[in-house]
Amino acid sequence: MEAVAKNLNEHFAAEAFSAQSAIFDEIYSDNTIVNYKRDRVRAHVLQYLKPNASILELNSGTGEDATFFASLGHCVHATDIAEGMQQKLREKAINYGLNNLISTELCSFTHLADLKNKGPYDQVFSNFAGLNCTSELDKVLRSLPGLLNKDGIATLVILPKFCLWESLLLFKGKFKTATRRWFSKNGVKAHVEGTYFTCWYYNPSYVINAVKDSFDVLSLEGLCTIVPPSYIEHFAEKRPRTYRWLKKMEDRYRFSWPWRFIGDYYIISLRKK
Fold first, then answer.
1. How far is CA 148 from CA 117, 118, 154, 168, 187, in A?
2. pLDDT of 17 above 80
3. Closest CA to 53 of 137, 151, 133
4. Quick check: 193 pLDDT over 70?
5. Which residues, including other chains, have CB under 8 Å from residue 242's CB and lie 6 or more apart?
6. What is the gyration radius of the CA atoms in the chain, in angstroms?
7. How far apart are CA 13 and CA 37, in angstroms?
8. Tens digit of each residue's pLDDT (9 = 90 or more) over 22-76
9. Could you write out the DSSP letters of every residue in the chain?
10. How big is the CA angle at 224 (ends 222 and 230), to the nearest 5 degrees?
11. How far is CA 63 from CA 24, 60, 67, 87, in A?
12. Please, what is the Cα angle at 163 between 219 and 17, to 5 degrees?
């Protein structure tokens, strides 16, 4: 029963995002901080990608990242369990003339042993907390070495158990949002457009301990640690000078303690031993 519940949770999360796939890009394409986050993650990944690399993307969504990396000549195998997302991705690949560099597969990241195209790959990539939709992140992490070439790299973008900006919402009376990560041992209910699922939070130490026998840590940086999260709406537009200054500060301190641990996300890159 527990395994069924876990699979249903991931299904419900995918269903929520799949239902919104037709408008997903429209919602976020003009969000300044979402674009800032994407640029930061992509810059992080690109520093480790060799030319014409093969990439396995987990929870690929509508293909914003898949099409970006394919446009640079990389081959991307994009996986998700939301058919709506995958259909949107395939349409983009055709429209951008990238269908020869992008392939898709419906597959859960908790069942990567069932993946038909097992690579091996130069890079495994998961963006924007898709991996927080499972209580079995350790299982996912253990499956990665077998999918990577020698010295292959995994780059993951994950929600930690504490976010400075989120905690500051206490002062605005948003107690539930401000404290949701503090008491999340058994997961926290989340929802998108009325569809509910459970989200878990993982600190970098959890990931590092889980992979210490198979990976070395290449890099760890905070994301939206000093820059506010994207759900603080229109911050960049309302306070452009402050936003530019916060970006400058985050660029300076994103690798430093405690900033790399207390952002809305962290980006971690691991190299296979």
1. 12, 9, 8, 40, 30
2. no
3. 151
4. no
5. none
6. 18
7. 21
8. 445 656 667 899 999 999 999 999 999 999 999 999 999 899 999 999 999 999 9
9. -HHHHHHHHHHHHHHHHHHTHHHHHHHHTT-HHHHHHHHHHHHHHHTTPPTT-EEEEES-TTSHHHHHHHHTT-EEEEEES-HHHHHHHHHHHHHTT-TTTEEEEE--GGGGGG-S----EEEEEE-TTGGGG-S-HHHHHHHSGGGEEEEEEEEEEE--S--HHHHGGGGGT-HHHHHTTTT-TT-EEEEETTEEEEE----HHHHHHHHTTTEEEEEEEEESSSSPPTTSTTHHHH-HHHHHHHHHHHHHHTTSTTTTTSSSEEEEEEEE-
10. 150
11. 11, 6, 6, 10
12. 85
Output the domain CATH number for residue 168. Answer: 3.40.50.150
Number of domains in the chain: 1
- 182: tokens are 């503090």
Nearest Cα to 154, choosing from 112, 130, 126, 124? Answer: 124
Token code pair at residue 43: 């810059």
Measuring CA to CA, how many Å separate 235 from each of 189, 238, 240? Answer: 26, 5, 8
Tokens of 230: 């994207």
Nearest partner of 17 among 156, 159, 157, 133, judged by Cα: 133
Q: Which amino acid is at 159?
A: L
212-235 tens-digit pLDDT: 999 999 999 999 999 999 988 899
| 258: containing domain | 2-272
Q: What residue type is assigned to position 113 of the chain?
A: A
